[in-house]
Amino acid sequence: MSEAFARQWMTRQFASGHGLYLLLDSQPQQREIRQWLLQTSDFEHYRIFYKDTPVAELADNGPFVFALERYDDKRIAPLLARPEDNWGWLFSLPQACLCAWVEHWQQRLIIGARPHQALYRFHDNRVLSRTLAHLPSEAIPAYLGPTLSVCYWQGTQWESSDNPTPGRYPVPESPPWLQTPAPAEQTREIRQLNAHRFLLAEHEQAYADLARTQPPETWLRERLEQADEWGWQTPQQLAFLLIHSVQMPAHGVDAQWQVRPGETPLEHFERVSHWVNTMGGGAAQ
Description:
29% of the residues are buried. Strands 2-3-1-4-7-8 form a 6-stranded antiparallel β-sheet, sandwiched between helices. α7 crosses α8, α7 (184-202) packs across α9 and α9 packs across α10. The protein is of the alpha+beta class. It is elongated and about 70 Å long. The protein is built from 11 helices and 8 strands. The protein has helices spanning 4-15, 31-39, 77-81, 98-106, 125-134, 140-144, 184-202, 204-211, 216-230, 235-247, 265-279; strands at residues 19-24, 46-48, 64-68, 88-93, 110-111, 118-119, 149-153, 158-162. The protein folds into 2 domains: 4-180, no CATH class; 185-279.
């Protein structure tokens, strides 16, 4: 299904008097078009989504929202031509409803409890597609909030979904969209991106020093593969491994970190963390 599907969806939304919007990720391959959209949009016609949130320091690496004044807006043609880049998604709202939409998703942005929190990648069209495919119809309004309709790349074709009852909804105590199973490959990608943003926000200088000697993406992938090998899967264990690895001179781990015969992942983690804390076997926390 070609980009004609997305254009037809935009035409229908525009004809119905709805506001049209683009939710754009800030991946490197989208930076040029993002800059173009910023230069050609009035201030009130875009939002830097992470601004004024607990992760404001990541604003430049987070999603941006742009109002589209025409159903045939030529500025997004490169995006529609390459949906496989997974740049985000299109959506429609009642007129003058963007502030409510931003507030809705900001309330759903941080998942988990301190100190084991993560960012929910709602702006990823793969997350949206998978979630809408698994959510029961009665759970969709609390997920999409004031959104009237969404149009997104499903992986092989364009799709659209309408919100049966748009409006303001509180975040459920146990959001059903967080129970959606993720494909293994996408889980790895999201975990690596979250690890990248964690180090960028909490240990920027050490991470920048590392990047001068080796590709950070490769280094991160190797650290996460090491965590998988050891069975360290909790946020506490992953943060511990990342922090001490990035701050060690060789950006590696001491021999004391290796698994001993018969050691469970928990026993291994407790031994290593005790050794680091009492013997100075790593960087200061």
